[in-house]
Every structure is written in C-alpha cells, then in structure tokens.
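Two quick folds needed for the group meeting slides. Do the first one here.
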Amino acid sequence: MLEVLRRVIQEVNGARNLDAALSTMVRRIRKAMQTDVCSFYLYDKELESLVLMETIGLRTQAVGRVVLPLGEGLVGLVAKRSEPLNLEEAQMHPQFRYFEATGEERYSSFLGVPIIHQRLMLGVLVVQQAEKRRYDDEDEAFLVTMAAQLAGVLAHALATGNLLRPALAGGQAMFKGVAASPGMAMGEAVVITPPSDLNSVPDLVPNDQDFEVARLKEAIGKTRSEIRAAAERLASRISAQELALFDVYQQMLGEAALADEVEKRIREGQWAPGALADVVRRHVQYLERVDDNYLRERAADIRDLGRRVLAHLQEDTPSTPETYPDNAILVGDEISVAMLGEVPRDKLKGLVSVRGSSTSHVAIVARAMGIPTVLGMVDLPLPRLGGAPVLLDGHRGRLFVRPGPELKARYESLIAEEEALSELLEHEQDLPSATPDGYSLPLMVNTGLAVDANALLKSRIGGVGLYRTEVPFMITERFPGEKEQTKLYRDQLEGFAPLPVVMRTLDIGGDKDLPYFPIDEANSFLGWRGMRVTLDHPEVLMVQLRAMLKASIDLDNLSVLFPMITNVEEVDEALRLLDRAILELGEEGITVVRPQVGVMIEVPATIYQMDSLAKRVDFFSVGSNDLTQYLLAVDRNNPRVSSLYDALHPALLGALLELAQDAKRLNKPISLCGELAGDPAGALLLMAMGFTSLSMNAPSLPKVRAAIRRVPLSDAEQLLEEVMALDTPALVHAHLDNRLDEWQLSHLMPPRD
C-alpha cells in the first residue's frame, strides 16, 4: 500500500493543473482501494457548505450542483466533526441524506475523511461501495494519508486562484502577504518582469579574458548610470536617509565588492555573464539563509543588481512598461529600489511583490514615500494579474483582485479617513512623546545602515535604541578591518550626535553565518550565535570594540550592547575584552571614555539573572521578537506555527512586566526593541509596565507618539492591570481593541476585519 500511495502522490504532484490533479486523484484512489466511488467535496467558508467538485462513480452532472451545509448529511458530518466516518450501511445512519442527482442510492458502504490544512477545513474525501463493506484500518489509514497530502496542494491552489471557490462570484479573489508599508490604495495591476534570468546563463570559456573584463566594466558603468538616474527621479520625493540607499547600490557595484570577485572568476577562465551569475547566486544563497530579516533582504539588492548588469552584458533591455496607468499598482516577483525609481511618482499607488519582507530596501523607501506595500505574497498568480482592477491593503498585507462594489465602497471610506489622520499626525511629530498627565517616554529608532541618520529624524527621537553592526560584515569577502569599521561607526555616531546610539556587537552564528565564516548546525536557533561566536573568536570582537571606541572620540554618545547573553560569565568575559581594548588604545596614545554597556534580554534564562547582571552592566535592552520565539517555542518564519507567535501572549506580557519591575528595583534603565514597541497598544502597555524607553522602526513613530500623547499614564496602568488578568491572546487583543475604541484611538490601529 505504501508503494501505491507513493505513486498516487507522485502523479498528483506531477499533474499539469489542479483540476487534472483532482481527477487523477479520485481515479487512482478508487483503483487502489478497489471500490466503486471516490469523490472530493470542497468546503466553502462563506457558505459554510460543501460542494461536490470531482467524482468517479457518481453522476458527473452532480459536480458543482450538490451542496451540503456544514453538519448536514454524512459528508457534512465528517466536516463538522473533523474526523473520519466509516459505515458499512450508510443509509441506516440518521444523518444520511439522499441526492437524486448523484445516483448514490446504489451504494451502501461509506468512508469519508476530512481534508484539513493548518486547522482550516478545506474539504472531504469520500469512497463508497455498492456491496456492504466495512473498510478496514489499512483502508482508512490510506485515505487519511491521501487527505493529508492533498491538503497542502489544495491550500496552495485556493490561495493562488488556481481553484476558485464556487461562492466567489465575479472572480473576486484575495491574496495574503507581509505588510511592509502601511496604507491602502485602489488601482490597476501592472506586472513587471526582471531584466534578466541569472539561473539560465550557460558556462562558457572566454577566448579573450581582457575583453570579458572590459565588457563587465562597461555593463557595471551602465548599471551605475541607471541607478543614478532612478535616484535623481526620486530626489525631491524622499529624504536624504532613503535616498542614501541608492549609495548602497553604488557601493555594492564597486571594485571592493561584486566587481572585484567577478573579475577574479573571469581571470580563472569564465566568461563575464557566467562569472557574474555564479558570484551573485553565491551571495544570494548565503544571504537567504540568514535568520535576521533585515540582513536577509540584502539578497534582493544583490539579485537586482546582478540582473541589471547581466541584462547589459546580454544587451537586453529591462522589461518595464513604456507607459503606466494613472493608478498603477506595481506587481512583480521581486521589486527593487531601482525599479521604484523608474515609475512616475504621480502614477504609482502601491507595490506588491512575491518576494521580500518589511526590512527590504524597497520597503524602507516605500514607507518614506507613503506608498502602501505588501511583500512576500508567495501565492500570487502573476501571469493572470496584468490589467486587473485591484485593491491593496498595506496594513493587513492583503491584495483583493477584482473587488466587488461593497468592498470598494468600504475601502474608499477607509482611505479617506486615513488621509485625514496622516495630515493630523504629521503636525505632531516634533512634539514631545509625553502623556497628558506629564509622563515622558523617550522614543528611539532601530537602524542598520550607516546612512540611516538624517536631520529630520533627529528632532523626533531620543536616540538610536539598536544599531545592527552586521551589515559591513555581510557585504565583504572578509572580516572588515578596524579602519573600515571605525569609519562606518563614526558616520552613525556623528549623524545622530549628541543623541545616544546603542551599537550591538556582531550578532552572527547558526543560520546567520558569513560567506567566509561558514557554520553548519542541526538546530541554528539553539546553536552558536551572538556572543557565543564572538567570545570564541576574541580577535573579531576586539577589532570591533576598538573600532567603536575610536569612533566615539569627542562624541561620547556610544553605548555598547551584547547580544544573545545566557550566562553572567559571558558578560564578565566581554567586559574584560572591552577594558583591554580601552587599555590598548591608551597605550597607543588614544584616550577614550568607557561607554555605557548593556545586555540584550532575549534568552529566557536571563529573566532569572537580573540581579547578577545588574552588578555588571549599565542598562538592559529587551529583544522582544527573539524573546517571544524562545518563550513560546515558535519559529515565526515557519508557516505551520507562525500563527502561534503573538507578542501579546499573556506569558510574554507577564515576563515583560517582571523584567520592568526588576529593572526598577535594581535602578537600571530598560528599553525594548521589537515589533511590540512599534504597536500603539503595545507601547501603552510597555509604558505602564515601566520601560524607560522604546525603540522601533522609524515608520512606527507617528502612531506610537500619538497614542502616548493621548492616554494618561494612570489610564495606561489601569489598562495593564485589566490585561494581566486575561488568560488568552485573543482576549488580550479584544480588550485592547475595546479600550482603544473607548478612547477614540482605534484609528491608530490597522483596520480590522
């Protein structure tokens, strides 16, 4: 039976489309189980009914016409109970219902199993036989296994529109992705394709290496010009902070990065296109393994640059439209910053991409430009979208294709409300983040690029709560030297001076290894990460600490943060290295001030070592994203369990409250950097707990500031008391929604279903 199962699954997966797969499946199952009938019923959530979608054995004219409400008939009973039903005489069961159109009066035996994907009912798989037959355990196990295999295929088909539910009249469909830039827009889908395919470049040996190098340099030069032109088109529409992201593209094209390595491959005997494709693929494959979303998204930048250079090497032109509609929603497999600059700004209303996340460069620029953006929409059927009317919800990460009149009317109202809110909040951005009863809570930003500093942002924040130092380590072929690092850190410290800047030491390891420093582990989340790596390689950490200290001379706004701390011994050893760096610089005639030192609270073990840690450090910084994953044992990048990841889980809120209380008792500042800080309701809870500052991505500042300015500390403390008495995340979310409604602050939260 296992061999039969393997063959059936293989044929289903190899079918040209879902309809063919369903047809193949019911026929193969009927043959394998030696029964008379095999049928598939699709569950329609909106109708709360099951529809006969495919059968072999029943009358074909019944397909699409037989509809069973949930709980009605034997099929409806299987779906309602979410468990198999095995009957020798089906007509004797009190739930049996006869449909004349099917001709099933001839069949006595019945076995039905539910098709469930991630707790969602998708349908029911049924076999029937004319003779009385009690399907045995092996039969039932076979059908249950087939249903489990079909669940994933079916879920994907429904999401991509390859199988529309019967209730979706007019072709309206909805797709989900990652909310990358807030806002809502209505318009026409414009599908764009990448300029070249890096995966279809043949390997050829060049006749003239010098000619290939010259071709490469010419192609890079043309790409530089493209990037420069795109930047110039956006120059008047985005701030220097976002505009500087184009400089990062230019740096990646420099001789010290991609070009140098590609030229080396050419000298080793590859032609220019092949050498370029190999180098780009290697960088991309490495970056895509990284756990940190911000760093992983650099793969998109490398891939886009590689495609552009390859297009010039192949003398192709980028596949972008010559004209755009007035309300263009740009849709593509992967959208880059450069592509964004090629579309007239007055016509660009939204962005949708199959790849990418909220930390990508295109997301950063889109947020700065106020363009609603949804990325990571993996189930998007790109070829079928061109020219379709669409509705984009950047708050909830949704794209509606061919929306109906009611949905359009609802979103027109929401869009008008949002425009009025944006205008109101902009007037408050230079005002203090203080409550009506006079309590002040500093708001900080998370940064990751040396170019993130800008004058506009400085007037609106209390400093940088987290600067990721990994970037320079990711874009080079080796560990960057002390001089290189010093310049990068100096740019960041000077850019925000005199505001404090918290620099996290190198946070690599596990699935965050470097191309020149590979790490292979079975369980990367519990492996060689953060301080565990840098303490094992003090020569790396010492260079970084020396560079940070030298960069802070005469500025004195540096704070050093140690990540992934589990034991106090790790802190002791790190502090010894810091003191040694200060001493070494002193011996070289360089006098530096010892910076404030903190530890990241992201491993649950540190919650119970606060007293010991407080004797050693000046401040605490809670990494709520990792702490949530570790505390709840949930990998939020795993779609099977990502729904369990919830920063408002009562257990996590209890841990955060305990941390804030401990920090207050120990007289130490405590900050939180993570998504919870950027959520207005979450920020109110953290303020009530006693967190002394919150650090978030810059786009979250306006709404968090607005919430703090409108809710007295006393009311926030009462809210916290109410929330801490609740038992489930769902109750917490519902209570927060109700309270914000009462305070007339629901407009600060994303639109609800």
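Then this one, please, same format:
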Amino acid sequence: MPAKPVTATYRVQVRPGFDLDATADLAGYLADLGVTHLYSAPLLAAAPGSAHGYDVVDHRQVNPELGGEAGRQRLLRALRDAGLGLVVDIVPNHAGVAVPAANPAWWDLLRRGRESAYAGWFDVDWQRGRLLLPVLADTPDALDDLKLADGELRYHEHRFPVADGTGDGTAREVHDRQHYELVSWRRGDAELTYRRFFAVSSLAGLRVEDPDVFAATHELILAWAAAGEVDGIRVDHPDGLRDPAGYLARLREAAPDAWLIVEKILEYGEELPGWPVDGTTGYDVLDAVGGLFVDGDAEADFTALDTRLAGRATSWADLTHDTKLGAATRLLAAELTRLAALAPDVDPDVARAALAELAAAFAVYRGYPPDGARHLANARAEAGRRRPDLTGALDAITRRLRDPDDELARRFPQFTGAVMAKGVEDTAYYRWSRFIALNEVGGSPTYFGTLPGRFHRFAAARHERWPASMTTLSTHDTKRGEDVRARLAVLAELPQRWADAVTGWMAAVPLPDAALAHLLWQTAVGAWPIERERLHAYAEKAAREAAASTSWTDPDPAFERAMHALVDAMYDDPAVTEGLAAFAAEITPPGWSNSLGQKLVQLAMPGVPDTYQGTELWDNSLVDPDNRRPVDFAVRRELLARLDAGWQPAVDETGAAKLLVVSRTLRARRDHPELFGDYQPLIVHGPAARHAVAFDRGGAVAVATRLPLRLAAAGGWRDTTLSLPVKEMSCLFTGRVYSGSQVRLVDLLTTYPVALLVPTT
C-alpha cells in the first residue's frame, strides 16, 4: 500500500511563476483544507518557459525552472511536516521538441539520425526519407534566412545540430546533408515523418513500449516511488500509446504500491478496461454529477432554439462525423498517410479514405478487448452506410484491423483517439452550441441531464468496481470551470426566458456565424462579470478551434473583427450590457445552489475527490490558458481561518459557503473514513422529492438540491422529508442536530441548499 493512503487530492499547476517553493508554501493550507495529497503538474524538465509541463525534454532531472531537485526536496519536507503526501503527473506518450537543444535525446537524433543511441526513442518513419521539421515560414525563399553559426544551423531563434563531417559549405548545402529537413509549418499536418501528440508537431511521440525507453524515461519517477517520496502517479493520455495495457502492467510492476490513475476519457456507457490501475482522472464523474443539476425536460426547447438560431436542424451524429473526418484527413493527414502505407494492397487514396471513414465512425476514443471488436464492427457498418463506394476497401482493411499482431491494427487505435480528441473535443464542442454546459471533456452533449436514479446506479457501480478512482469537476483540460457550468445549468430551468434574451442580443449585435454567437452569449452569461480581455481571448480561441468561420491556420480578419466587436458590445453598448448583467445576476444565486450541490456530491460520492486549484471558492474560469491563471491563496487562507473561528457565511459573492462545503467534507473523509465505506441511495418523500438527491456513504449522509428555480416556483420543499439511517445526526455545515427517523428538508436545507450529516455519537 502507499506510504500514505490517498483520500483526497488538490491539483496545483506547478509552473514557472509558481514554482516548487511557492507550492511548498501551500502545504499548511492544504492540510487545513482537508486533503491528504498534493497533486502536481508534471515536474520533470520541460521546454523552456513551459506553462504546463507536458512537453518534457529531459527525463533525468526535475525542471530547473521550478527549482530543480533542491526545490523538490524542500517541497517534500514541507509536505511531510504538514502530514501530506504527493501525487505526480507523468507524460509517457510524448516529449517536447520545440527547442531541440533543450532535449538531449532529440538533439542527438537530429545530429546522428538512425545511428543515434536515441533513434529507438521516437516513432520515426525513416522509410519516407529525412525527418521533416515544420519550422519555416510559408514562403518559397524561407531557407534564405538559414545561417551557419558556431557549428549549428540557425533559422531565426531556432537552432539545429550539424552531423559530423557535414559542416562545410553554405548553410543551404549543409542543411541538405542533414538527417532532417526544415520545411514550411504548413506541411506539418500533411507530411511529417514522426508520430506526434494529436496534431502538435512540437510534441514527438515516444516509444515506451520498448523496455529500454520505458526504463530511461521512468527511472527518476520510479526512484521517487521506491523511496516513498511519491504515493500516487497520474498517467497522461494512455490512449496515445502503442500498447496501453502492456505499459500499465509494466508500470504497476515497477510501482506496486502506488495509487495509479489514468487520464482515460470514457464515452457514455463505456467501461474502463481491466487494467492494473485504481481508476481514471474522473471525467466520467464530471459528466454524471453535472448532469444531475440540468433539467432534462428542457431538451426540446433548446433543440428548437438552436434550430431557429442556426436556420437549420443540426445532427450531433452528422456534425461529429464531419469534424472527425476533417481531423483525420487534414489535421492528422501525416498519420493517415502512414497508416495507408501499411495497406499496400489497396490503392493509397482509397485506403486513406477508408481508414478516415472508419476513424470518423469509431464511437469511442480507442477500442480495447473485449469491446474493441464490437466498436470496430459498428464503425465498419456506419462507414459502409456513409460510403458504400468504399465497401471493398473497408472490408479489406477491417480484416486487417481484427488481427492484433498486424502493424496496421497496432497503429490504428492510436489514430482513432487523436481523431476523437481533435474532431470532437477541439472542434465539435465549439460548433455545437445548443447548450454548452454539456460540452465537456468526457461529456455526452446529446444526453440532456442525469436523473437521480441513473446517478445512483453510476455511483454504486463505482463503489463496487473502482472505489479508488478519482472524482473531479474541474481540470486544466475542462472547457469551462465548474461554477460556470453550474450557472449555465440554470438556463435549462427557464428556456423561454433564455430564448427571448439571446434572440434579442443576437439581433442587436449580429454575427455571421450564429452557432458561435450563441456559444459566446452563453459563455458571457455563465462567467459574468468577466474581464474584457479574457472574453476576447476566449472568443478568438473558440472561433479558431471551431474552424467554421475562421481558423488557426487561415484566420479570417473580417470575421474576427466582427466577433471582437460583438464582445466589445457586451461591455460598451448600454442596452446590451445592462440586459446581460441583469440576466447573469438573476441566475447567479440558483447557480450558486447548483455549484454547492455538485461540489458536495463530487466530494462525498465513492472515489478519491480532487479539488482543482482555486475552485474551493467560486471560479468563473474558461478553457486553458484561462484556467491556469494565478490563484489568490491568501484570500482562501483568510476565509478558512474565519470559518474555523465559527463564522457562518451566507451563500454570496465571497464563495466562503463553497469553501465551507469543501473543507468540512474533505475533513470528514480524512478524519472519519469509516463513515464513507458504503453507498446507498436514500429515499426522499413528498411533493418536491425530484428536487433532492441524497445518499448514505455508510454513516455520512449527503443531501443536495436540484433545479432550485422550479423548486421555488412549485412552492418550495413543503412537506418533503428524508429518512435518516440513525435517529440523531448533526450537519457539518451548520452544526444543527436532527433527531428522529425523518427530517423535513425545509428544516435541513434552510441555511444552505446542501447538507452533510453524520451521527452525533
């Protein structure tokens, strides 16, 4: 078992500007909050200035920009002194290569080519010629700016090594002798000869299926685990690996006592494979818990609104097919070409088309035994329906994909995961704006809300199968913060009011792309008040990710001017600003109710709860990099001290009520684990029963309010009651004691819309 059992984690984005020493200073606060472990962003040496750490360049050392090994030791001492442990994030799938000189293995590969001692580290297709590096400007004479200096090739700020014996002559002549070729950045998606992370050319895929590569890239992390300095390991993006099951088996063997979780995104109803891990990073929980606070009765209203605004009905199935096909054939064209080359018996263009259709039709990120065969069969049927002209190629390629020893079958799953991520998460989620509270990583936007019965089945299954899996509501990858989603959920309780408001705003400030406009108005009302520059940055990212009216590769200046004018109107047009602010103010209190409800459910349900940095108070963050903004921990310390001194906060702008819920729930789980060893739904009786969700964890009882506006409109709780498992229980949020076998919800939830009850003896 881990040296310190992981009961609850707190995620910190350790980065330059908030380094290991700054993180160490949080130890006392985190212990007071109630967590048992700091959960850090990657700590190994990353690309210079990296704000996230997922672009590791040297697996042999702690990132010197974070404080290096000395900083890590200071962090460990601070954690030990506070009684905390450490969970680290590792990145086995890829390495950072944007700055070749910072990555010794990549530098040596560029210098020595296939003769490099590190040639086996990277997934390079040498049969297609030199290693292509997409760094040049997209002009015919870009190489004229190439220079030879200090035995290196230089292109503006970029530096590249020169192979031994090839340094004589002009820069162009030297370049032509290298194991690599510098090409236009536009050729990256179509022609690269190395596997990447998704479509990010600055992240080169690692071959950790090779035992030597695994050993070299994991030696330091595993040494920490063996020394008892790490209690848990979070594995980034296992779907990108050639053999995830084999990798995780090797990792578990090397770290048998670690709490091991994987960033595996499960589609609706999909089960985690039977890997030797403790669970996932919790996106499935985010979807189920958030859905509890969405009124499913509003689905038809929002579908009608979306159809009217867009001028056409939008099919999620057709939209995602098209965005996934676009990702497969454009963003991931280089990977598609490599796959097609593995099917030499099929015409290359036909093979590309068939493989792209299969990937676009694949219903999950990646197929794993035993369900992988079913997903492949379904994808073949759907691809054939859409492209009957490809029947022969689809049959031939599908036969190959059924053979686990076939190289095509080994590589295709790496492709489907990337197609899903880029086509759905990073494109369709920005085009499908029917109701953006559901557009979340691991979410299922076509499933409009979660009924309590389904949630209870989900939670009971987790308790049975994956009791140590992580639960979360926010991560550095979520599309919007948990409290933004909670406020947006309120829109489902007043669909006509929202339809009238957004129709008026869109008429007052028109934008050619109605779907994007609807997304921006929802974003604004969900995060208001939000700084103007943050909303501008979000709008630009959303529009370019959607790639419908503008894009990263080919921005449309005229459209983007109109889009930014829309954002400015939210702040500068009095009629628009007043209406937007008034609407946001109206839905903010019920949004707070939803926020507290989903937070309590997430923290109290089966699993190991994670709190993303700063979200113990209200958080109106949007997609990264917005959700990596600095956190004011001084304010949080001060508020927590006031709570511990007996302050009973109101549910208001301070967010202290959320801090109360977080701290009291986490402390209960840490100090009284015996109260959280079971899961049983509790029956609510009375006229407002549908507005409550309640469960017994084996002594601790959690109760949360659902659909607060409709509850108020129906007359409140009235005679609605909850059966208690013991006859005397106290609420950890208010201190009130409740006696008897029944408690009236109007009494229980009078101060806060949530309650956490524990036995008094």
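Slide caption for protein two: The chain is about 45% helix and 15% strand.
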